[in-house]
Amino acid sequence: MTATDPVITAADEGVKLSRSLRRLDIIFFTIGATFTLDSIAQIAATGGAEAFTWGIVVAITFLLPYGLITAELGSAFPQEGGPYFWVKFAYGKLAAAISTMLWWVTNPVWLGGSLVFLAAVTWDAYIGHLSSGSFGDYLFKFVFIWLGILAAVVSIRLGKHFLNVGTVIKLAMVAFFLVTVVVYGAQHGLHGYSAGDYVPTIGGFLAVTPVMLFAFSGYEAPNGAAEEMRNPQRDVPVSVLTSGSIATLSYLVPILAILLVLPVDQITGAGGFMDAVSTVFTVYGGAHDTMLKILAVLFIFTLLHQGAAWMIGSDRVQAIAGVDGSFPKFFGKFHPKLETPVRVNLLSGVVATVFCILATEIVSGSAAAIFVVVLTIAITTLLLSYLIILPSARKLRRTHPDVVRPFRVPGGDAGITVATVLVFLWILFGSFVAVFPDVLEKVFGVEYDFEDYWGVSRTTFEVFTIGTMAVIIAIAIGGYLWRRSRER
User: Fold this and answer.
1) How far is the C-alpha of 472 from the C-alpha of 330, rounded, in Å?
2) Residues of the domain holding 436
3) Which pTM was predicted?
């Protein structure tokens, strides 16, 4: 660091953080944030057979350089709230305030939107009926959301056991599913696509890669708790590269299995994984229904685990922005005993609950379509934040050359430049497609019915898309300016 780079963390608020995360804990934490079972079906449904092919391409040209960049940043700058400080040191507090807000807001919206609704759909289909908007439906959703928040509120000493168990269950489910697919294939043969359907096309590329970029993200999440790691300089690079390899295989192999098992017209993003499980579990005869219920409960647990993993990391990063003067100080408090940012945790719970209520009540018509647009762009803010966060690696090589880097992106300055450019171009593409769908489709002559897909006109879509981003960025800038005025 230099004299112009003050590092203010939870310790300055009178909280001494316990270093309780070992290397294996960090690996499980990273896998928990980067690998989710619901994305498997979503990727398969969006891209079809091409999803597997494009998955290999994205893993090599995006996931690998992204992991290398994160390993360097996380080991060289191991402050609590990692991504906030990476951007602050590279571009200043205002840029850090904006990138942190974009990065954080994704997670409560995701928890109260996609995750909780997929959990409710799974419960309704396999365990017990839940009528949308009923008391039981709201009770289930609220309990799901606030259990995820509770996992972030408790101390990391306890929370890490939840993360570890959830990751083990998730990987065990994938392994059991794959073994069952082999048995099913031997007994019944396989369906799905022909070999020619795996050939990549522009249409498949435009459809599946934004979803895949979002699914493959999250290697920086554990660095939100960097000062709670035993040895981040040594453990972060190992955990990123190890978890990256495991997560990549855990995506690609099950995607291929779903494509082989399910007929083409039965692959859906909402229930694709459990649909595939239901199909292959017929090999267990009379135990089929019981085993399906057990897997459904475990699947819901993994969704909760996914949301909690992100909350544990992202809430700390947003709280550090408050501690450091880039967000209202009220949210920069860590609980002295729990050592967690309880105020930001509760803010996340409120945001998630509000989105859940809105999504449940607005179920049809133009209002529902507009809400889907807002929800989609709010989740896409994760990609937008990476346009600021990840290029900081290249900038910090120039501005902070004397900082010890236990791990470096191979290839010297040329290596990190290539890695940064590759990742930036992928994120720029994913963000552009999310904010301006059908533009590239028109350029390449790919059929795309905008109003049929989104349920609103292009003008309405862009108004709410740009409007949502403007509101989020305005909140970040407003919080930053308010804090500066208070400090003066």
Assistant:
1) 19
2) 10-487
3) 0.90
